[in-house]
């Protein structure tokens, strides 16, 4: 079962699954979104073997900001989902984020490093991780790097909108992370699902990010270079700016690079180069527009 089949990562997972004859039951969320009560009803009625929880994908990975009230409700939803999965013997696959780290390390973060989230969102995601571990032993928590999708309101969409309208864009040249296009994230999720389906008890926390850590400045330049052939842009170039001078410096880790050795050694999943996925991603973004 896939919660959140309507968002960009959910759609990418459904597309990839279809290529391998893997179907997902993707129920339509209630009007107010999935909460503890609606999740209880859903799992009592359906009893799937596994749940991929992308119900809060946009708020956790793409939204500019999220209210504390929304995050609190989503935390309760995840906690209830974990309890239900344990009760019914369902495997839970729950994406998480680089945001659980504070970015003070000089080197890439491994799964053994202690989370110290900076932002309210990071703290909520970290509490969600803890509730999943406590309630549902048969889980996989998958922390992703900087996720890029084709949604208009997501981080990529906001950047491209500014590039169409602004003369100048400033991006940090001393902040680092792993850009991770949603098609690549979906590939990783599908590979994990297939191996868990073989009854391999590979529970725990894993990291995944696209190959080649980079800066927002270099990522932005690569995106502009690709986008110029598809759409008129006003901005000419990107101005380097220090991480500390950025408006989101208090919330975004300066170092968000994730080490991906554990997922390679456990599942055999190799990081793919994010640059190679940009043409497809941007083509889909502009075609949807």
TrEMBL record:
What is its cofactor? Mg(2+)
Q: Look up the EC number in the record and give it.
A: 1.1.1.133
Q: Does the keyword Oxidoreductase apply?
A: yes
List each copy of the RmlD-like substrate binding domain by range. Answer: 1-286
* One Gene Ontology molecular-function label: dTDP-4-dehydrorhamnose reductase activity
Reactions it catalyzes: dTDP-beta-L-rhamnose + NADP(+) = dTDP-4-dehydro-beta-L-rhamnose + NADPH + H(+)
Q: Which UniProt keywords apply?
A: NADP, Oxidoreductase
Any one GO CC term of this protein is:
cytosol
Q: Which Pfam families match?
A: RmlD_sub_bind
- GO biological process, alphabetically ordered: dTDP-rhamnose biosynthetic process; O antigen biosynthetic process
Cofactor annotation remark: Binds 1 Mg(2+) ion per monomer.
Q: List the pathway annotation.
A: Carbohydrate biosynthesis; dTDP-L-rhamnose biosynthesis
> PANTHER family annotated for this entry?
DTDP-4-DEHYDRORHAMNOSE REDUCTASE (PTHR10491), METHIONINE ADENOSYLTRANSFERASE 2 SUBUNIT BETA (PTHR10491:SF4)
Protein family: Belongs to the dTDP-4-dehydrorhamnose reductase family.
User: What is this protein for, i.e. what is its function?
Assistant: Catalyzes the reduction of dTDP-6-deoxy-L-lyxo-4-hexulose to yield dTDP-L-rhamnose.
- Name of the protein described by the UniProt record: dTDP-4-dehydrorhamnose reductase
> What organism does this protein naturally occur in?
Metapseudomonas resinovorans NBRC 106553
Its lineage reads:
Bacteria, Pseudomonadati, Pseudomonadota, Gammaproteobacteria, Pseudomonadales
